[in-house]
Amino acid sequence: QVQLMESGGGLVQAGGSLRLSCTASLSVFTFDAMGWYRQGPGEQRVLVATINSGGGTNYANFVKGRFSISRDNAKNTVDLQMNSLQLEDTAAYYCKAQWLWPVRDFWGQGTQVTVSS
After folding, report:
1. Of the candidates 116, 100, 86, 97, which has an alpha carbon nearest to the alpha carbon of residue 23?
2. How far is CA 97 from the centre of its chain?
3. Dihedral of CA 51/5/90/44: which sign?
4. pLDDT tens, 50-97?
């Protein structure tokens, strides 16, 4: 049973920073890719950033230059460093781990990030 646990969410003022962490029950090398997604109120869940098994990263345009995804193999974590937070970044943030063969996605329960003015 794959389990993902997010942590690090909270309330922060605009312009501030937060660091989210996703701890996996398996080695992060087990997965073909891991990433962070977010879902605002009344919105669909969208990709924020991903990192693949080779260390390659991908970012949504709206976070480029502000957010950074990284992987700690020893701790089995994937972190999302969020800087220059904006009101629009308010959302529930979810960690996702993916196998490509067979295709399987695993999700964490989410952590809330609220950016205030």
Report:
1. 97
2. 10
3. positive
4. 999 999 999 999 999 999 999 998 999 999 999 999 999 999 999 999
Q: How confident is the model at residue 1 (pLDDT cuts 50, 70, 90)?
A: confident
Of 12, 8, 4, nearest to 90 by C-alpha is: 12
- Using CB atoms within 10 A of its CB, is residue 105 exposed (0-12), middle (13-18) or buried (19+)? exposed
Q: How far apart are CA 11 and CA 37, in angstroms?
A: 18
In the prediction, which pLDDT does 114 show?
98
DSSP E strands, 1-101: 4-7, 10-13, 18-24, 33-39, 46-52, 57-59, 67-72, 77-82, 91-100
